[in-house]
Each structure stands twice: as structure tokens, then as C-alpha cells.
Amino acid sequence: MEGNSTLLELRAILENATVGILFSKNRHLVRANPLCAQMFGYTAEEMVGLTGRTLYPSDEIYESVGREAGPALAAGQPFRAELDMVRKDGSCFRCRLSAKAVNPLRPQAGTIWIMEDVTADYQTEQLVRNALAEHQMIFDNAAVGIMYVEDRMVVRCNRKLEEIFGYGTGEMLGLSTRQLHPSQESFDDLGNRARDPIRRGEVFSTECGARRKDGRCFWVRITGHRAPHAGERFDVVWIFEDVTQRREAEEALRRAKDELEQRVLERTNELTVTNQQLQKEIFERVQAEQRIWHVAHHDALTGLPNRTLLHDRLEQALAQALRDNHRVGVMFLDLDRFKSINDTLGHPVGDELLKQVAGRIEAAVRAVDTVSRLGGDEFIVILRELAGPDDAVLVAEKIVQTLAMPINAVGHELCVTPSIGISIFPDDGLEALQLMKNADTAMYHAKARGRNNFQFFAPRMNEEATRFFRLEHQLRHALDVGELVLHYQPQLRITETAVCGFEALVRWQHPESGLMPPAEFVPVAEETGLILPLGEWVLGEALRQNRLWQEAGYPQLPVSVNLSPRQFRQRGLVELVRCLLEDTGQPARLLELEITETSLMHDVDEALDTLRELSAMGVRLAIDDFGIGYSSLNHLKRFPVHRLKIDRSFVSDLGEDWGDAAIVSAIVSLARALNLETLAEGVESSAQVQTLLSYGCTRFQGNYFSVPLPASEAELLFRSPAKVA
Ligand code: C2E
Ligand code: MG
Ligand code: MG
Fold it and tell me: pTM score, two decimals?
């Protein structure tokens, strides 16, 4: 009974066991519990009698299990294995088995197999294994170094880390992380910085220096975080990236940048200096250009606009006047007798005078007006925005007034007066040149009217100008065809009561106007230069006539010939005189040249040279019209002249004007003191002769004795004794 119950109990155990239980004998299945049958997809009954091989996937596996299990079982040991087994339907499952021989000494007694379907566990384990393998692969092949640190000791690391730090495989395990730092300070510093964040579970990342196994230092970026499951321990996973190259590149870049910045700075400084220099140069150039422009457009002496600028300004003024319906006045101003001042007192005085005159004119006009100097003593004033000619009158009067006050120039108290000609736009012309020409013409009329006044242009003035040109033309012709004649006026010396010489005076036998006095054409000749051929003819003719007279047996007397300023200054004058004397066979002592004060004072040194040469030749020299010019006594004494001809203006008023008498008396005394002869011109009465005699003047010329006569009549005077008062 008890045996039966045991059997029942065993059966119950077998049927309810949570593992598969199989009993085999001689490689055949003898019995399987329900779970085992279910595991293999059979019924318990079906399994009975099957060969063991049926449950294995292949003969090889079956054999190998047999080979492995055999010795263990024979030794009474349990045999354990885990392997794939085959179900009835051919599918496999993972099976963990353990076997034990019923009686190790008798294998044929059979074997008990305990089987467990561990497919699910196996698969999970497989997955974990795969995942681990993958992780390991990633770990091993990562491009960054990774290490697992426990208590500052490397417990795990990948190949890359070893490479980075120059260690061989496995060499780093157990290494203190201190070894990876270049210094204790660096080690402590990192620890201090990383500890708290990592403890808090944050990711800590920084770049710092690191040391290779060979001691070489390099740069790494490290990122650390707390290892999972580290619990209370301070285990950290560190990831290392070698950033040396990047750091070096950055460093190089920074140095390059610094260098570049330094260079830029230097270059900028250079540029600043260059720029400043350039600015300076530009400034200087602009200034130079302005100076050049100023010089090109202004008169050097007075600083007034010159002709060029004047034209611009006038054009502007005219254009504006046309738009605004205004008038413009053009004023031509010439200083009376300025030349004599210049000649007598010298250029520095003349220059100073011009400057002061310029200043006064400028002060007399409005700011919109332009005062310009054309050269010499000629000024032009543009008067803008005139309502009518009256406005111009006011300005002209103002200028005359302002110049009336004496000017002190280099110690000389001088009085200058202007002659002003005015033309008005649009009345007297629409164009600048026309207006200037007309103002010029008007100015000449102001001079002709006795100077120190102003004249408006009038069309008849141009007619006179036209007459001037016609006269010039005719005079040229007259020279060619011989319409000029010489008249001779005797000169007497009372003490000898005889003619002592003749003055040759030119006349023009004009085909229409009759005999024309020199006053009407000599100025034209002087102005146009015709005076040179004319003068040469006069000189030659006078010498020829004198020779004819000598040949006719008349006494040898000197002939006087007038030289105009231009003639006196002409080049080759001395040579010309010498030639003509030779041509006519006349001795030099029979020729007297009359020169005005103005001629002599123009350029004193040159005049002195000419006079000396002529005098050295033996030619006599007389100063004509003496007393009305500006002779400097200082120069006078140096000139080798023989005679002063007292101007007839002093003689004509003798007896009426005490001033003139005093002048004549003074001239005679002066001449005596300088050892010069005097001759009074224009003597018309015996009273004048008496007065002149009383002053000690004994030489005369004038209509009282004889008017100038043609040669044929003059020669009669050689014989007839002179009329004596
Ligand atoms: P000048 O050399 O002073 O000549 C004297 C002028 O006084 C002459 O005038 C003469 O006719 C004039 N005259 C002489 N006696 C009397 C008188 O009693 N009463 C008045 N009222 N006048 C008298 P003319 O011939 O008309 O000459 C005028 C000026 O023309 C001359 O002044 C001289 O400067 C210039 N001239 C004359 N002939 C020549 C010449 O051949 N060459 C140059 N360059 N100038 C000349
Ligand atoms: Mg004369
Ligand atoms: Mg004279």
C-alpha cells in the first residue's frame, strides 16, 4: 500500500513538475512528463519510444552531446548544457538541460533529463549580448577617448583614449587619473571645478591641458558625467577629444590676427601720416594754385585785379545788368603827368604813389564795383548796378576829390590829378571791349580838356579818333611823297646883334588843309612811331640846308633840331646823328639838338649815356621848354648840356606875372651857376627883351625878331642885322 502511494506521489510530482522531465534508456525515450511532452509538441504517449536523436537539430549536435555527457554521467556527475532542441513540428527552442544517470555504474539503467524551455531568457540574453557587443564596438571604435573612472582610477577605457594618451592596449587600466594631468595644480583645479556639477548629475565640459605617457603635453576637451549606478561612489565617465590641433590652429589664428591687427594698426598709422601729409600737400597745392590764380589775375604792384580778371568781372556785370535791366559804368582813369613824376623822382616813388592812388580809388567805390589796374598809371573801374549816368558822376566826383588830397610817397608830398573817361552800358556799347575802348576815348578827351576832370563818352569822340587814324595814314604817305617842309626861325644874341643860329621847325604842306603846324601832327607821329622816320628826315634836311647855306657863302651858324622823347630814346640815335653829319659833311659843333626835360628825366642813366656820347662827338645840346617839366637839379648838373631854352609860357607873361618873372630870373641864375647858356623862347615884344636883358638873358628867339620862315626867306636874315629893341 505504501509502495502504491509512493508511486502515486511520484506520478503527481512528474505531472505537476514545472520542468520537463524525461527518462531515457539506450538512446530511446522511455517516459516524459506532460510539461516535457508539451515542450516538444508531443503527447506524453507519443514521445515514448522515440530515439533521443529526434529531439536534436542534427546528428553532430546529438553526437557531441552524447560525447560530452557520457563521461560526466559515468562519473555520477550531473551533465548540464544549454542548446537548441527540435519540436515535433521541426521548430527549435532553447533548452537548458541537466542529466543524471540513474546508476552511474550501469548506463543501461537509463538517464533522467530535466529540461527547461529558456527560449525567452535566451533571446533576452542574446539581445543584451548583441547590445553589449554593439556598445563594445562603438566603445572600441569611437572617435573620442572614453574612460570609466572609479575613485580616480581608470577602470575601463577605449582604444582611442589609449591612442590619445600614447599608451599600449590595456596599459591604462588601473592608472591614476593624476597621471593624465600635466601638473598637480591642473589635476586639483579640474577636480575642484568638476566635482560639484558632476555630483549634481550635470554634464561637465571644459578644455584643459593633458599629459601623454611620453610626457608631452597637449590640449583636450573633456566632458564628464556621473556614471550610471554609481550610487554613493563618485564614478565618472570621461570623454576626451584631442583639440590640440584646433587649439594650435586657433592659437595660430589668434597670433595671425594679432599680427594682422598690429600690421593694420601700423598701416593705419602710416596711412594717417600719409593722409595728413597728403592733406597738407593738397592744402599747399590749393594754396599755391590760389596764389598762382591770384598772381595771374592781379596786378603785382597794387594787388588790384588785372586785365584778365577785369574782363571776367565786366562780362559778369554786363550779363547781370542785362537780366536786371541795370546800367553798368566803365571808367577809364589815367593819372595826369604821372610819367614825369616817375621819371623825375624815380620808380620807387612812382610805385608808392600808384599804390596809394589804388587804395584811394578802391575806398571811393562800393564793394560790388571792381577797381583794376591795366598797367602804368591806367586804372579801370567797373560800376555795377547803376540806375543811370548820374550815379557814375557821383563816383567820378568822389574819385577826383579823394585824389585832390596830397599824397606822401617816400617822403615826397605829391599832388596827382586824374583824367577820367566814362562809358555806360548799354548806351555806349553792349560789349566789354567796345565799352572799354569808348571809355578810353572819353579819357583822352578829358585829358584834352585840361585834365583833372571826367568826360562821358560821346559818339563824336570816335569821329576824332577816326580823324587820328586818317591823319596817321596821310602822314605816312606825306613822308613818302615829301610833303613835309622845314621852316627856320633865327636865334639872336643881343650882345652881337646878329643871328647866331636857326631852329628848324617842321611843317606839313597838306594837300587839303594847307600848311599844317607841328602841334597837329607831331603828337600823332609820336604816338604811332612815325616820329622816327620823320625825325630822321628833319635832321638830315636841316643839315643839308645848313651845308647849302655854307656853300652859298653864308657864315657858318649852328642849326637846332628838335628831338621828341621817343626819338631821344630810340636805339642807335648816336649812330644816326654821326652818319647824317658825315653824309652832309657837317661838323658836329654846327648841330644843336633840343631835348625836353621829360625826355631826359625818363631814364636818367640812359639819357646821361646818350648825352655824353653826343657831347663827346661835339654836338651841342639844349633843354627845350625848360621850366615846365620836372627837372631834378641834381641830375641837371650832371648832364653835359650847353643851353636852357626858357619856355615861352614864362616869357609871354613877363611884366604881368611876378611869378613868371621870378622863375625866369631864377632860371638865368641857375644856368649861370651851372655854366649854361640861356635862350628865351617866344619873345614877342621889345619889353620882353628888355626885361630878359635885365635878368641877364641875352639870347632870344621869337616872332618879335622873325617868325619861322622857309629856307629861301630865312637865308636873307644872314645879311640883315637883327632887330634890336
Ligand atoms: P618848340 O621847339 O618850342 O618851338 C618853338 C615854337 O614856338 C614853334 O612852334 C614856334 O613857331 C613858336 N614860336 C616862336 N616864336 C614865337 C612867338 O613869338 N610867339 C609864339 N606864340 N610862338 C612862337 P611850332 O613851329 O608850331 O612848333 C611847335 C613845337 O613842335 C616845337 O616847339 C617843337 O616842340 C615841335 N616841333 C617842331 N618841329 C619839330 C620837329 O622837327 N621835330 C620834333 N620832334 N618836334 C618839332
Ligand atoms: Mg624847339
Ligand atoms: Mg620850345
Answer: 0.50
